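Reviewer 2 asked us to include a model.

Predict the structure of this chain.
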Amino acid sequence: MTEGVYQVRGFDVSNMTVVEGPDGLVIVDPLISEECADAALAL
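Predicted model (structure tokens):
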């Protein structure tokens, strides 16, 4: 992607996009289950 923008793929049927901003993170498409999202964010 680019600096400050990341993607997590292969944890679910969708891809999670994480954008780092000055005030925190913006999560786009947080996956279908809390367990998958937790595992992706643990990376």
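The beta strands are 5-8, 16-21, 24-28. Residues 5-42 form one domain. We have added this to the supplementary material.
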